[in-house]
Design brief:
This protein has 13 helices and 15 strands. By secondary structure, the chain is an alpha+beta fold. It has three domains: 8-113, no CATH class; 120-211, Phosphorylase Kinase, domain 1 (2-Layer Sandwich), CATH 3.30.200.20; 222-426, Aminoglycoside phosphotransferase (APH), C-terminal lobe (Aminoglycoside 3'-phosphotransferase, Chain: A, domain 2).
Length: 430
């Protein structure tokens, strides 16, 4: 029986592409079982052809495989395997590869890139980032000692490793929809400096962040008890931000409150492009369940818990914990909203006893501060409301993402709408 089709890599240099004598592109090994396609390390893709960066978003082909478009920095591009068996795109053996490579080469021409294409795929972008990094490091007595290394280049963000004479720094650039991340992170750092990655510098107009490394950020290095620590420390931090909500809003954080959440959800129920992925019965069920879901959303907001700073995507993949210091990172969705959305989102991916312990740790902070509120009931409703909130988030991302990258996060709005009837039923009285 045949397995999943192999992903391929197209190293494009000077309008030609690396291929073997029969016109076939280099193939990547199969992913590990159950691994998501976005989890393949970029280093694996680049090293296959001695590449240095991605020239365009990775494309999903008709057979479900992925095609990565790789290039080299510098004007000549004559190094390593790039000089071997260069073919014209039309000479590739696979017609879909030929078409995709030809389209990518055409889009590399100045002014011809798709409107929503992220900046890090444009020629010269890495030079601009390095110049900025060098400029902000110089007054600090630090210097970059090697070219920046792309760690991740996806449709929504670029993450770069920055070697310096005083250790490695990390640089992040978000796509246009998330450009406020640098400003959000800076504002949160002013209030909660010990709970976010330490900033070296930000470029607010571009959304660039230069940050110190964090211990305990990778799953294999996270210390025991991370879920409970994240739940209790973040609940306390949110509570402390309540009095600062006016200043955070004045600083430009988005207010994703009750009416905005309901209005955006109702809009996507009538206009999302992903409605076409649902059957007629699924769409009817989702719209029917939405009536009750929005009633429960109003109940959550009216219970007496004040709005606060929200991370917007709080899960353990966005938390660093080394047993001593806890840091919350990736502030693309940071906003002012109902704090229990973060608590529900954190607990959602946990299992059994871990989920119960983390939920209790989060709840205890709010029970102590607001004893008149039935916190248990609100935390019962919060997962449903978080589903509504996250569906709005992914609808916004889908609208702002280039079509070629739709495979990365596409289908999540439709998936969430399929889950809505069951999520409503899970709430007592639903």
């Amino acid at each position: 029986m045949g397995g999943a089709p192999n992903d391929h890599v197209a190293l494009i240099v000077g309008g030609r592409v690396l291929a073997d004598a029969s016109g076939r592109l280099p193939a990547l090994p199969p992913l590990a079982p159950h691994a998501h396609r976005t989890e393949r390390p970029l280093t694996e893709v680049l090293s296959l052809v001695d590449g240095e960066l991605l020239l365009a978003p990775t494309a999903e082909l008709a057979d479900g495989s992925l095609l990565h478009f790789v290039g080299l920095r510098g004007p000549s591009g004559d190094s390593g395997s790039a000089s071997e068996h260069r073919s014209a795109p039309g000479d590739l053996a696979e017609p879909e590869h030929a078409a995709a490579v030809g389209r990518t080469i055409a889009e590399l021409a100045p002014g011809d890139a798709p409107a929503l294409r992220p900046a890090w795929f444009a020629p010269g972008w890495f030079d601009l980032v390095e110049a900025w990094i060098d400029a902000v490091l110089a007054p600090l007595g630090r210097r970059r000692i090697a070219p920046v290394e792309p760690h991740q280049l996806r449709s929504i963000s670029a993450v770069l490793r920055v070697p310096t004479d005083a250790g490695v720094l990390w640089c992040k650039a978000p796509f246009r929809h998330f450009r406020d991340e640098a400003r959000i992170h800076r504002e949160v750092a002013r209030l909660l400096p010990a709970l976010v990655p330490a900033l070296v510098a930000v470029e607010v107009s571009e959304g660039w962040l230069l940050m110190e490394p964090m211990a305990g950020a990778e799953e294999e290095t996270q210390a025991e008890g991370i879920a409970t620590e994240a739940a209790s420390q973040w609940a306390a931090a949110q509570l402390a931000t309540v009095e600062h909500v006016p200043s955070l809003l004045a600083a430009g954080l988005e207010h994703r409150g009750l009416e905005a959440t309901i209005g955006d959800f109702e809009l996507l129920l009538s206009s999302s492009s992903e409605l076409a992925l649902l059957t007629a019965d699924e769409l009817t069920a989702a719209r029917t369940a939405a009536v009750r879901a929005l009633t429960l959303t109003r109940e959550l907001w009216s219970a007496g818990i004040p709005e606060a700073l929200c991370h917007g995507d709080l899960h353990l993949g966005n938390v660093a914990w080394d047993g001593d210091s806890l840091r919350v990172f990736d502030w693309t969705d940071g906003c002012i909203s109902h704090p229990f959305l973060d608590g529900a989102h954190l607990v959602r991916a946990l299992d059994g006893e871990d989920a119960a312990i983390a939920r209790d740790a989060y709840a205890s902070v709010w029970r102590a501060a607001h004893p008149a509120v039935v916190v248990g009931r609100m935390l019962e409703i919060a997962p449903l409301v978080d589903l509504v909130f996250q569906t709005v988030t992914f609808e916004r991302i889908a609208r702002a993402t280039e079509a070629q990258s739709a495979w990365e996060l596409g289908g999540i709005v439709a998936r969430n709408l399929r889950q809505l009837p069951q999520a409503v039923a899970a709430v007592s009285g639903g």
